[in-house]
DNA sequence: GGGCCCGCAGGG
DNA sequence: CCCTGCGGGCCC
């Protein structure tokens, strides 16, 4: 709390407390208002010099909870800093904005770019690609009060962004209008400002790309599999059995690659935007596969021997398994005679080896990779198995693996799995996730051979500071990026292009996706509940609704006007007030448009370099959002896409008009590809995918889906000639 | 509940 | 292109 006796230095640098001129080494400058203070006269002295760069004066920290929260190390000492700030302040050639920018650069420790001749020079790497994410942001994500990079950003309904502290300080002074446009700040917003997480993530990513040597740990690639398939598993004509006995997989709803390690987070779940949650249950393995928890629909282990295993299923297929919930002993695959067209065989007839998927598990053990675990109702001996269906139980790590003689006498590969998930297990009443726990004593290890224990530090581990399990090392890079390699294993032109285009800018743009259409926002709006949408998308979500609805009262014919509640598409907050006069967040819009135009220029340059006759040219021939964003969801509605609350064509046109008008105001802004407002994606029932329309399903079930191999072995060979592609060359299997 | 059967999907 | 696989429907 501020002490009333705290006073700053006056214009001459004389401390108003001790009335002496404060020496340079004893002057402190507030990071918010840039006022100099005499450090020795402060009632709450600074703990370390390191706090100096982020010190906030008693006036500015009135609303701040605790001082000293800053952790960023300054590169400049206190006295030096003040001198530099003074130099900036007294530079007549600079505008106020430029001064603020330079102050910010100084205070953020970015002294190199604060050199007088070239502030904010973009740093280029050897490829000429801009790597300095924060520089790309420019001053577009600066707080309009302190002019520094937004810290805990909040966005007003009038479309302006402030640091939480600055905003709180502003309203704490009794001000109820926006510092920029003087628009009234809604009282709820003033009381409970919400952090705009899209901006947080964008800044975080920008910082990450700045500090990252190459690539980026948090990079999110979006791969779409089976996207043209129906929502449900389906049977081809060829399949002799109905239902899912011999079915093909339906659409994969999440955008992780098939060899994705670790949890499936919200950013990979365009369908529901929550990710795959612990405890989520599906009807069967096909459905489980569609949500990416465990991709292989028969095999218990999903993995690659040279690369690692991503997930396992506990389905009671091997009697040696031993389940204790938080830890379990898993048995490898193989050792069974599968001749005669069998898929499994209870009887073991030879030893298992550490090869194929057994080796994949061992690789995950050695590296400490996170392994997703699903339990099936078919595991009858475990009390932790679900009653029905297949359930996602979270992340485990393989702490040890070995071989031992199994129940049937032949050797089996064995794995000790220990849970390490940030969410509580489905069976526990705890409401926190796992903490590192001691390994259980495994009796059978006494008789084990080929024991493998992890030697290096695990890739997935508990971070004491954050109090959660995180990637301590970058997750293995996916080898399953579509079309990344040609037949000879050389990287393809398309992949090269994709790599090149995966610039910092592109990643930043992804952070500015509309929560409805999931594309980069056009005319971004931030609701008071801090969710971001395209203007058209949000308005279109309530097309046909009026702000006031009339209700008859108590059986009489009196009509009473009542406010119509309009729930934010992302949460249950009423956004009807906001919608009466929604203001575009122009700072965001400017940033998005500048990123897009820069990317377009870069793309054009690389087109020229590539030559005109590139067969993939249509992929990225514009600053096409489809290139940036996953284009899922569009087909969900198909032709009868106007699913939302009776949205009518006129309404769509109307909002498109508004869009256009607003757009035309801005000179030279290029039309964006997604000016068509998208209807909101229909929410799917959790873990279910039965929302597909009958005709659609029927259409696909006719069997013209993907071309399939026509291979077969063992019995039933005759039926082969009836297959749709029976005329194609096919292996002459012996009968 | 056990056994048989076989399309599919992924690994290599 | 072949091999493998802790599925799932159905018959007994």
Automatic annotation (TrEMBL):
This protein's record includes keyword Repressor: no
Annotated Polar residues bias: 118-130
GO biological process annotation, one example: protein ubiquitination
EC id: 2.3.2.27
Transmembrane segments: none
Protein keywords: Chromatin regulator, Coiled coil, DNA-binding, Ligase, Metal-binding, Nucleus, Transferase, Ubl conjugation pathway, Zinc, Zinc-finger
Keyword match Zinc: yes
A Pfam family per the record: SAD_SRA
Domain PHD-type: from-to ranges: 12-63
Compartments, record wording: Nucleus
Region (Disordered): 89-131, 471-502, 657-735
Classification via CDD domains: RING-HC_ORTHRUS_rpt1
Domain RING-type span(s) in chain numbering: 143-182, 514-572
Catalytic reaction list: S-ubiquitinyl-[E2 ubiquitin-conjugating enzyme]-L-cysteine + [acceptor protein]-L-lysine = [E2 ubiquitin-conjugating enzyme]-L-cysteine + N(6)-ubiquitinyl-[acceptor protein]-L-lysine
Coiled coil ranges: 585-612
SUPFAM superfamilies for this protein: FYVE/PHD zinc finger, PUA domain-like, RING/U-box
Domain YDG residues, every copy: 271-419
Composition bias, Basic and acidic residues: 89-105, 474-491, 658-669, 681-707
GO cellular component: nucleus
Annotated GO MF terms: DNA binding; ligase activity; ubiquitin protein ligase activity; zinc ion binding
Name of the protein: RING-type E3 ubiquitin transferase
């Amino acid at each position: 709390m501020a002490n009333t006796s705290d006073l700053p230095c006056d214009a001459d640098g004389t401390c108003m407390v001790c009335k002496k001129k404060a020496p340079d080494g004893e002057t402190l400058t507030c990071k918010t208002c840039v006022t100099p203070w005499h450090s020795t006269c402060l009632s709450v002295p600074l703990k370390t010099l390191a706090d100096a760069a982020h010190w906030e004066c008693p006036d500015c920290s009135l609303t701040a909870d605790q001082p000293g929260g800053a952790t960023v190390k300054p590169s400049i000492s206190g006295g030096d800093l003040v001198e530099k700030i003074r130099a900036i302040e007294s530079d007549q050639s600079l505008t106020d904005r430029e001064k603020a920018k330079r102050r910010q650069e100084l205070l953020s420790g970015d002294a190199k770019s604060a050199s007088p001749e070239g502030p904010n020079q973009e740093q280029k790497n050897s490829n000429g690609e801009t790597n300095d994410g924060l520089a790309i942001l420019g001053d577009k994500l600066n707080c309009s009060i302190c002019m520094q990079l937004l810290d805990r950003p909040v966005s007003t309904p009038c479309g302006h962004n402030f640091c939480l502290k600055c905003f709180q300080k502003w309203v704490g002074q009794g001000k109820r209008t926006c510092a920029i446009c003087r628009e009234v700040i809604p009282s709820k917003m003033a009381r409970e400002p919400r952090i705009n997480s899209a901006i947080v993530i964008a800044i975080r990513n920008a910082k990450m790309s700045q500090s990252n040597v190459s690539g980026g740990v948090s990079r999110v690639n979006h791969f779409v599999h089976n996207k043209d398939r129906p929502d449900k598993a389906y049977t081809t004509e060829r399949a002799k059995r109905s239902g899912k006995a011999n079915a093909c997989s339906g659409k994969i709803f999440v955008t992780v690659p098939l060899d994705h390690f670790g949890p499936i987070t919200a950013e990979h779940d365009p369908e529901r935007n929550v990710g795959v949650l612990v405890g989520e249950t599906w009807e069967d393995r096909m459905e489980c596969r569609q949500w990416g928890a465990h991709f292989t629909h028969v095999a218990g282990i999903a993995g690659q021997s040279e690369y690692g295993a991503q997930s396992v299923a506990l389905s009671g297929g091997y009697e040696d398994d031993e389940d204790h919930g938080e830890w379990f002993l898993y048995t490898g695959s193989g050792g069974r005679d599968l001749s005669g067209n069998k898929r499994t065989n209870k009887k073991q007839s030879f030893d298992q080896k550490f090869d194929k998927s057994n080796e994949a598990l061992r690789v995950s053990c050695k590296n400490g990779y996170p392994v997703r675990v699903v339990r099936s109702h078919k595991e009858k001996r475990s009390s932790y198995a679900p009653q029905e269906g297949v359930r996602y139980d979270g992340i485990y790590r393989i702490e040890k693996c070995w071989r031992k003689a199994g129940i049937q006498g032949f050797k089996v590969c064995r794995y000790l799995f220990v849970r390490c998930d940030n969410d509580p297990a489905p069976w526990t009443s705890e409401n926190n996730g796992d903490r590192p726990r001691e390994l259980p004593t495994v009796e059978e290890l006494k008789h084990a051979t080929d024991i493998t224990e992890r030697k290096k530090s695990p890739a997935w581990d508990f971070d004491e500071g954050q109090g959660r399990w995180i990637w301590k090392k970058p997750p293995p890079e996916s080898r399953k990026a579509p079309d990344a390699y040609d037949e000879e294993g050389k990287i393809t032109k398309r992949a090269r292009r994709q790599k090149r285009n995966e610039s910092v800018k592109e990643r930043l743009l992804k952070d500015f996706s509309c929560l409805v259409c999931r594309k980069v926002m056009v005319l971004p709006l931030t609701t008071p509940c801090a969710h971001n949408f395209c203007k058209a998308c949000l308005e279109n979500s309530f097309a046909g609704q009026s702000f006031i609805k009339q209700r008859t009262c108590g059986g009489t014919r009196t009509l009473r006007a009542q406010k119509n509640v309009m729930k934010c598409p992302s949460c249950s907050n009423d956004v009807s007030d906001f919608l009466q006069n929604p203001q575009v967040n122009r700072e965001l819009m400017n940033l998005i448009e500048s990123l897009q135009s820069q990317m377009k220029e870069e793309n054009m340059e690389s087109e020229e370099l590539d030559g005109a006759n590139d067969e993939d040219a249509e992929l990225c021939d514009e600053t096409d959002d489809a290139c940036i964003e996953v284009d899922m969801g569009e087909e969900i509605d198909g032709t009868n896409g106007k699913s939302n609350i009776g949205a009518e064509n006129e309404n769509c046109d109307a909002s498109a008009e508004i869009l256009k008008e607003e757009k035309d105001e801005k000179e030279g802004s290029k039309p964006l590809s997604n000016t068509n407002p998208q209807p909101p994606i229909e929410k799917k029932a959790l873990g279910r995918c039965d929302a597909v329309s009958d005709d659609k399903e029927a259409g696909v079930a006719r069997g013209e889906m993907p071309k399939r191999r026509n291979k077969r072995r063992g019995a039933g060979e005759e039926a082969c000639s009836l297959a749709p592609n029976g005329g194609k060359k096919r292996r002459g299997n012996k009968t």
